[in-house]
Amino acid sequence: MQPHMLVLGGSGVTGNGAVVALQDAEWKVTTLSRAIEPPHETAHLSADLLDRASLQKHSDSLAHVTHIFYAAIKPSDDAKTEAEENSLMFKNIIESVIAAGADLKRVIFLQGGKVYGAHLGVYKTPAREDDSRHYPPNLYFEHEDYARTLESKGIRWTALRPDIMIGHSLGSAMNMGNLIGLYGTLCKHFGVAMQFPGSAAAYSVLINFTTASLLGEAVVWAADNEKDGAYNVTNGDVCRWKHLWPKVAEWFGLDVGEPQPINLQQRLNQASDSEWKNIATRYDLREPDINRIAQGSFGDFLFHVETDGIFDVTKARQAGFNEMSLRTDNEIIEHLDNMVKDGLIPNPQTM
Questions:
Q1: Annotated domain spans of the chain
Q2: Which of 106, 189, 295, 341 is a good FRET partner for 92, with 20 to 30 A between their CA atoms?
Q3: Could you give the CA distance from residue 116 to residue 344 in angstroms, rounded to a whole number?
């Protein structure tokens, strides 16, 4: 039987990277989401992961699934609610695939820094896959604990743990590449320096990133090589904002300025109905809805983290994943170039 990957969360930055890499590797791919229109040129199923009945309507299609890549998430401000709802979504799709009679071999699911407590602002670094969990609840604990129960059914699992994401997406709340592109464009429009919109302490801490295409390669690697357990996946380098930011400002043709904390979400909301729509019209941009490009709230958190946030990727390297050799500054600049090519932001030289 040809391997067949069902991708949940295919429209997000991580899911998009996985779909592209899987297609390049000639996997058969089907996406599933609530959206009616497919996010990619793949087979697509429209269903609600919280509604088991809507999944069961697709039993004939689910019966052919051999692998699952799960990158779906339903955020909530309440950690207990978030854990419960996301646990149910995860179980619903896996149990629906099993009930359809599929020969399910492996579930690959996304975790990320939140599994270590990144959302709490501080965690042990460099983070290793065998570090102690933080005090619950956490939706990723629920996913992993359930995945372990599948082993008795002969279904293996892999948890991939990327950090700050860079890659193509629209409508994704956690795409740092898009947020930097959006913020820099507005700075250019207003004729101001591209000041780091966070604290001076955050400007100097150690951070790491994961490019979506690299994460996609990790999905293919885990599936093709039957890798069990959890693996940190980053670009492989370690950065500080104070070293990245001047290179980004230079790309926009702007002065760097000084770290100057602002509420990005508030500023983007204020720009959404006036400045951004005018920019989109003037430069014939693809997306006039500023919130579809990036969310300022993601930056409002990350740009104020004042302790190191980095992962140890030794385990994945020792297991044979040797692609983590990227320079993040180059990846960000390439992403900005791609945003121009995709019509999401203007070429700053024309502004």
A1: 4-165+210-233, 166-209+238-310+325-350
A2: 295
A3: 33
Q: Which two tokens stand for residue 286?
A: 């693809």
What value does the mean pLDDT of the chain take? 95
Q: How far apart are CA 339 and CA 181, in angstroms?
A: 8
Per DSSP, the residues of 312-349 read --HHHHHTT-------HHHHHHHHHHHHHHTTSS--GG
At residue 156, what is the residue type?
R
Q: Which residue(s) pair with 159 in the sheet?
A: 109, 230
% of the chain residues with pLDDT over 70: 99
Residues 50-63: tens digit of each pLDDT: 999 999 999 999 99
Half-sphere exposure of 317 (CA within 13 A, CB side): 10
The secondary structure of residue 221, as a DSSP letter, is H
- Please report where in the chains the tokens 């899987």 appear, as a residue: 22
Cα separations (Å) of 33 from 212, 269, 282?
A: 19, 27, 34
Quick one: tokens of 172? 């994704």
Beta carbons within 10 angstroms of residue 250's beta carbon: 13
DSSP code per residue over 266-291: HHHHHHHTTHHHHHHHHTT-S---HH
Q: How confident is the model at residue 174 (pLDDT cuts 50, 70, 90)?
A: confident
Is the separation of the CB atoms in 216 and 224 below 8 Å?
no
- Candidates 162, 210, 198; CA nearest to 306 is 198
User: Which residues are CB-neighbours of 37 under 8 A, at least 6 positions away?
Assistant: 44
Residue type, 168: H
Which tokens go with 210? 């994961």
Which residue from 104, 10, 18 is spatially nearest to 65, judged by alpha carbons? 104
Q: Which amino acid is at 71?
A: A
Which residue type does 203 have?
Y
Report the DSSP beta bridge partners of residue 44. Answer: 31
- Return the closest-CA partner of residue 213 out of 170, 162, 167: 167
Measured in whole angstroms, how far is the alpha carbon of residue 285 from the centre of its chain?
23
166-209+238-310+325-350 under CATH 2.40.50.140, yes or no: no
